[in-house]
Specification:
This protein has 489 residues and is of the alpha+beta class. The chain is built from 7 helices and 28 strands. It folds into 3 domains: 145 residues, no CATH class; 131 residues, Immunoglobulin-like; 133 residues, Immunoglobulin-like. Helix content is 17%, strand content 38%. The chain starts with a helix and ends with a strand.
Length: 489
Amino acid sequence: MKKIYLYISLCLFMAGLIISCADNTNFSNLHELTADEIAEIARQDSIREAQKNKINADLVLKYSVEITTSKTLYDGVSLPISIDSIARLFSLSNAQVLAGIAGESGAPEIKPFAIEGTTHADNGTASTTNSTWGHWWDANGDVTTWGSSEKKAVLFAEFDTEAGEFYVGQYPNRLEANDTIKIIECLKYNEKRVAVVITVKTVAPGQINATVVSTQNLSISIVGKSSYDPDSLQFDLNKAISDLGVSSMNEVKFLGVNQDGSYAQEAVTGNGFWYDMNGFVGSWGNDASVYTNYGDFAANYISIGQYPDHLTEGQKFTIKYCLWSKANKKIVVLNIAITVVGYQDPETPPTGDPVAVEKTIELSKTYSNDYASVQVDVKDLLRNAFKKTTYQIHKAISSGELKLYQGTVSETAPTYTADAPGYWLKADGTAGPWSESLVWCSLGHSETELYLYSGNHPDNCAPGTTVTTKLIATYNGGSVTFNVTIKVN
């Protein structure tokens, strides 16, 4: 009986293999979908896409803005939104909505958040900008942070509770012309939700279509400085206005000239540009020489400032700063020849040999939640100790030849923890990092000033704090010991 059972089982197994092989003779050929099957797949895809793109909100406000791309600026546009509509949905007044967004004490608890572009999931972070409501966004419309390298920040939307509007701007040099990015900023009050959908479209800066109608050749001699303070340079204002065909400088825009001869349109110093060591438009940083601006002085003067400690006596270069009437398609070029000259020191060094002196100083200030400082003049003290002029001591501080120690003079160079030369100070008066300190004290300087200045840590320091420390300045064989008491009232 057992043999018969095994025989039948084997026969059935072999039959199964034959049938299976027959069914899969053409297993390598794809199944051809019918029209009904294709329609059903499309319907399912459509449902999934609709679910993904659905915005979970009781009120959806849609806006579009256009931004001109910039390589150097965080430029953008202001976008007023309908606070009236939001207030009606929340059954609040406009003032209550704005106060709630601002997080004011006693205001309705309105929760800012965002919706991710790729998943349409909620992102509960109220803000990744400096505002109480607003976010940085990547190219996919997902929330990110400023400077993010993993998910590159390209746009920001920052809400102004006083104006009732967003400022939608860009991260410099990350947007391309003809980009389109959709972002979704949201609010929630009780169970009601509002979504503000902003579609951002980008355009390239327009080409300059204008003719140079005149050139004013100007020249200026400047002293290499350790500050950004500008010198003034007069130009022929009346002729420039006449040549441009405008009624005032209010109708004028400003241009620089790049190395390839093209015009730079993106003013970065207010109404002007940074220039490199060859006199072409550049950027703030290692190769920066001078900058231009308009508006610091009288109407017939422009500003020529400089990057501190970058210019040396004998340097000569020419920059071009252009006045442009876009409406009249005219340009006036200010061709400016710059010569760097040596500093004419008005002081003479004190006579005698350098000495060691000691001075007790009290710096008293009112507590502030910023880095506001107070200062005391120590120019004569340092001049007499080191037997040098103010300018010579200033240059020695800039070069590091003058050293400022905390506590005691050591064989090794000091490591400054605040504005150099200077220190953040802990409660016991010893030097510490910013995170552990209460106050700071530094030696300030310029061509004409020498002073000690101090301020309090906004978070670590409380009113009533007193810190005492010893700072020792050494230079040219002399020394000045400052016994400093810093009082925060």
